[in-house]
Amino acid sequence: MASAPENEKNASAPEKKTLTLKSMINNEEFVVDEHVALQSVTIKNMVDSDCAGDVIPVPTISGEILALVIEYCKNHANPSASEDDLKKADAGIVAKDIYTLIDLVLAANFLDIKGLLEVTSQKIADSIKDLPHQDVREIFGVENDYTPEEEAAVRAEHDWAFEGFP
Amino acid sequence: MEPGRREHKKNQKIEAKSKTQFPYLPEEIVLRILSKLSIDSLLRFRCVSKPWHSSIHDLKFKQQQVIVMSKRVEKWIIKNLSIQLIDHRGSIKNLPVPKPFMQPTKLPEIMGSCNGILLVRVGLDCFLWNPLNRCCTKAISIERFRYNFNGYFIVSGLCYDSYTDDYKIVLWNSGHCFVMVGSCRNKTWTEIPFPYYGRKVRAGPTIGGPFSLVDKEN
């Protein structure tokens, strides 16, 4: 659906510049209007310094995640979108499981897209705030460097915060 | 049934994790996420690991979090004194009361806050209290203002001076044409002329470090 009008646009208005972003993980390619892609400061710097060829390779970001990033950029490049529309659209983009959100926040950080970084971090915070710390440790892949006694001591300092948690 | 289900859930999680290209998030992203959490989550997540503990220790309080000290207490029942945390969603949590605040005849009063640290007056002593890590230190005495405090309208605030790494207390009362600035580091008071009068002076909000007194008429 999305690609059809884009092709049309390219045919009728060839002066409109596009960039091709290519995920280096699964080689998926995305053709994007330049002004949409330039919301990424990383891509903007590449284009400004003439480092960008016809195809911009994006390392470490999968096609699935890149599609979400491009959806975000498209929404925010639309000058007629109201603040309310954007909020709803953002909420839709980050309505994902925690592991997808972690990939997305890394992508937003790498591509330097401030707004996306902000909404994704907020969503991650909302998703983990009521989880036991053991689950948070697992999700973030953090190694537990406490001895059981040390952990118990830290916990005892604020026992009230652990009420109802394992 | 129950253990089987749990096992299944765990497998799913590990499978999902392998999709992640980086199993570890850079520290700046972790900090960004932590800074969006409320105090009760943060206190629990100190148990995640030692690096998380120190990151959370260094975190500043969220702007939206407001500390409210309840004053509905009868003098002889200390346990009714409660300190409550209200976060930006409006949920209320009771916080443990630091020992120095538990004085049968004196009620603690919040005189200002800055960087998540509260300035609390108990009688003639001022304390700096960080509810996040429970640090409570006696900052400075207001003994010399013992008689100035009665019957006057007091405006107070706390600010941080990054140049001298010092928390400073600003006091003003409607009876004087100077403000008193107290240094928590040096335990000294300095008088600064203040050319405004009247009851319309209010403490302005502290943003980051600077403290301002706002005169409503000017």
UniProtKB/TrEMBL annotation, chain A:
Key words, A-Z: Ubl conjugation pathway
SKP1 component POZ domain mapped to chain residues: 26-77
Pfam families: Skp1, Skp1_POZ
InterPro entries in alphabetical order: SKP1, SKP1-like, SKP1-like_dim_sf, SKP1/BTB/POZ_sf, Skp1_comp_dimer, Skp1_comp_POZ
Pathway note: Protein modification; protein ubiquitination
Domain SKP1 component dimerisation: start-end pairs: 114-161
Domain of life where this protein originates: Eukaryota
Example GO BP: protein ubiquitination
Subunit structure: Part of a SCF (SKP1-cullin-F-box) protein ligase complex.
Family: Belongs to the SKP1 family.
Physiological role: Involved in ubiquitination and subsequent proteasomal degradation of target proteins. Together with CUL1, RBX1 and a F-box protein, it forms a SCF E3 ubiquitin ligase complex. The functional specificity of this complex depends on the type of F-box protein. In the SCF complex, it serves as an adapter that links the F-box protein to CUL1.
Listed name of the protein: SKP1-like protein
Lineage: Eukaryota, Viridiplantae, Streptophyta, Embryophyta, Tracheophyta
Automatic annotation (TrEMBL), chain B:
InterPro entries: F-box-like_dom_sf, F-box_dom, SCF_F-box_component
Gene3D superfamilies registered for this protein in UniProt: 1.20.1280.50
SMART domains: FBOX
Superkingdom of this protein's organism: Eukaryota
Domain F-box intervals: 19-64
A Pfam family this chain is assigned to: F-box
Name of the protein in its database record: F-box domain-containing protein
Organism the protein comes from: Actinidia rufa
